[in-house]
Amino acid sequence: MDVHKLQRYIAYAKQKSHPRLDEKSAEIVKGFYVEDRLRSTKENKNKSSRIPITIRQLEAIIRLSEARAKVELSETVTQKHL
């Protein structure tokens, strides 16, 4: 793909594509977050040095998933984008 066509594609994707998580994907991300926090809480009781995922990291995962869906010009973030 030539550079001009790629620039046009990126500009189009930025303007026209604004994907959001669908319900199933949101549940998967939520489940991952809750499971990770619970696991780290249990391990901290056992004196493990595991650091749980934070809200900021969770938001970054969502933004990356949305960016991946945007590249495909998808309207929704599905499981394959996670």
Secondary-structure blueprint:
Blueprint: H1 3-16, E1 20-21, H2 23-45, H3 55-71, E2 76-77
Structural features, described:
This protein has 82 residues and is mainly alpha-helical. The protein has one domain (20-81). It is 66% helix and 5% strand. Strands 1-2 form a two-stranded parallel sheet. The longest helix has 23 residues, at 23-45. The relative contact order is 0.20. The model has no long low-confidence stretch (mean pLDDT 90).
Summarize the structure.
The protein has 82 residues and is mainly alpha-helical.
Key traits:
single chain; 82 residues; mainly alpha; two-stranded parallel sheet
Q: From the alpha carbons, calculate the radius of gyration and give it in angstroms.
A: 17 Å
Strand order of the largest sheet: 1-2
Structural class: mainly alpha
Compute the number of helices.
Answer: 3
